[in-house]
Amino acid sequence: MTKIVNPMIWRWKNEGQVKVTITTGVGAATCDVNIEGRDSQYHAVKNEIESFKNWLRDSAVIRHPDA
To answer: In the chain, what is the straight-line distance between the N-terminal and C-terminal CA atoms, in Å?
Structure first.
């Protein structure tokens, strides 16, 4: 599931010099997001990820690619 946010991660890496790492938690029910960058960039990335998460929760069904 973390592959769907790769374009956002690449954009933040290239434009904002922010390193974002997303790892799938135990059982694939959770994800851990690590953001390395300046405080202002950290908050911008966090807000964008939260916004994306809310949009995704309200509008899409995510299934495992092999399902």
So the answer is: 12
Model pTM score:
0.67
Residues 26-55 have pLDDT tens digits of 766 778 888 898 888 888 888 988 898 888
The ranges assigned to domains in the chain are 2-59
Tokens of 55: 């949009």
Which residues share a beta bridge with 31? Answer: 24
Helices (H), 1-67: 6-16, 39-59
Task: Return the closest-CA partner of residue 15 out of 34, 54, 41.
Answer: 41
> What is the distance between the alpha carbons of residues 57 and 28, in angstroms, rounded to a whole number?
16
Residue 61 Cα to chain centre, angstroms: 17
Within 10 Å of residue 33's Cβ, how many Cβ atoms?
16
